What we know:
Blueprint: E1 2-6, E2 27-28, E3 31-32, H1 33-42, E4 48-53, H2 57-63, E5 68-69, E6 72-78, H3 84-96, E7 102-106, E8 109-111, H4 115-124, E9 129-135, E10 143-147, E11 153-158, E12 169-177, H5 193-203, E13 207-211, E14 216-218, H6 222-233, H7 238-241, E15 250-251, E16 256-257, E17 262-264, E18 267-268, E19 273-274, E20 279-281, E21 284-285, E22 290-291, E23 296-298, E24 301-302, E25 307-308, E26 313-314, E27 318-320, E28 325-326, E29 331-332, E30 336-338
Helix pairs in contact: 3-5
Amino acid sequence: MRSIILVGGKGTRLRPLTYETPKQMLPLVGVAMIECVLSDLARHGVTDAVLALGYLPNRFIEAYPSNTIAGVGVTYAVEPEPLDTAGAIRFAAQFGGFDETFLVVNGDVVSDLDVSALVARHRDRAAEATIALHTVADPSGFGVVSTDEGGRVLAFVEKPAPGEAPSNQINAGYYVMEPSVLNAIPAGVRVNVEREVFPRLAETKTLFARADEAYWLDTGTPHAYLQANVDILKGRRSERHGAVVVDGSWRHPNATIDPSALIINSAVDADCVVGSGVVLENAVLLPRAVIQSDCEVRSSIIGPSAIIGPGSRLGPTCVVGAKEHVAAASHLSGDVRLGGV
């Protein structure tokens, strides 16, 4: 099966990390998120994918010049202007010449979802489109879906007000679609699949859904991005990821870590330097980050080539952008974001 991967968003909730790096290129325990997504899809028979690019497209193209990611052949469809989710799907499908049933995946979701079962449900119901569903406690930040006993979608409500959701089942960001769906999307204009296309398909009774309670995480916030890394470190997904986790943490072979440093549930990427007396807990250090002596970094993300001055206390939940320098003895906590364009 062929797939479209939606990777065109600006990742505003993860700024400042995403000013220079698309969120799908951020690493999960040393492996770019896009590689994790495509590796999972390859297990379900996806052989080719079109990356629907908009924001910083050259970061993907330069990183994977061989047009292969995690064993999946890829092509790059760069939007001439922002087209929103449905517009991006149509643009990428036409770019790739899609003329058979295809898969669409949000590129910032990591999941163990059973894609093969989703495709089977789609074909069994002769659907135009089928949505994967996941149950959450608070659905107000997501697209909420209600279905009948046969899985036909009755209502699709995008980000309802708290207490007004028709169910706790949300759009998991995995869709199976027929090429006929593309005919309902105007070319070259902004069209949203959740707010415009899915409600129309629900009205024609050709939209179905399948619930899947497998591991699922939208990595679009600092808290969720940290959680995705910690889940791998704690073994929840390490068998699929391939990370070599030692004592609950991962250290890139090229990282330099003082023997006195205490590393707990943390990922230390390539060419990082961790000084004496440092404590890292539930932290992610991106390549070339430097943590000088006697610092504590907890539940925080330190960007590429950032420097944390000696004696500093960070977290939770601090996000330090690329090349930022935090002064010695700084004490930062809460939703702190350091760094700009």
